[in-house]
Design a protein that fits this description.
Length: 155
């Protein structure tokens, strides 16, 4: 039986994908005590393809960037579920870190990251409010437009 967080995801029309396997020398998550650190997740959609490729401010619209950040957040949640088995065990979303592939002068990285942040609040309510960093970068793996990492407090 799905918990309340998974029911909320279902109400939003979101099905968690199988978590992505690492493509280099790292692991997808590390738990230490009540903290769960999830490695950066790219913006893969349910079809296994990147939601957006290229650079914000250079062919990728703000709206597509926000969709890509939301997809990253869904993939973070898939990793959290793999790590702890039940998303209702998330006590708090502590921090998100966003990497936005962007052209020099693109200043809306924080608005792009709202795609991920908004989903965490939609799903977890006040427990989803988090600290955050957003960084514009020159390039991301596979030419992804967005990558998001997360830190969660878990029971």
């Amino acid at each position: 039986m799905a918990g309340s967080v998974e029911r909320k995801l279902a109400d939003l029309g979101i099905a968690l994908p199988a978590p992505a396997a690492p493509v280099a020398n790292y692991i997808p998550f590390v738990r230490t005590g009540s903290l769960l650190v999830v490695s950066g997740q790219l913006c893969f959609g349910t079809d296994g393809k990147l939601v957006a490729t290229g650079k914000l401010g250079g062919g990728v619209s703000l709206e597509d960037g926000q969709k890509a950040a939301r997809a990253c957040a869904v993939n973070l949640l898939a990793q959290v579920k793999a790590a702890i088995g039940d998303l209702d065990k998330v006590a708090r979303v502590v921090r998100l870190g966003g990497f936005i592939s962007s052209m020099p002068g693109f200043l809306d990285g924080p608005r792009v990251m709202n795609g991920a942040s908004d989903l965490m609040v939609e799903v977890f309510g006040d427990k989803g409010r988090h600290a955050r960093s957003t960084i514009g970068v020159a390039v991301l793996p596979a030419d992804a437009a967005v990558e998001v990492e997360g830190l969660f407090e878990v029971a």
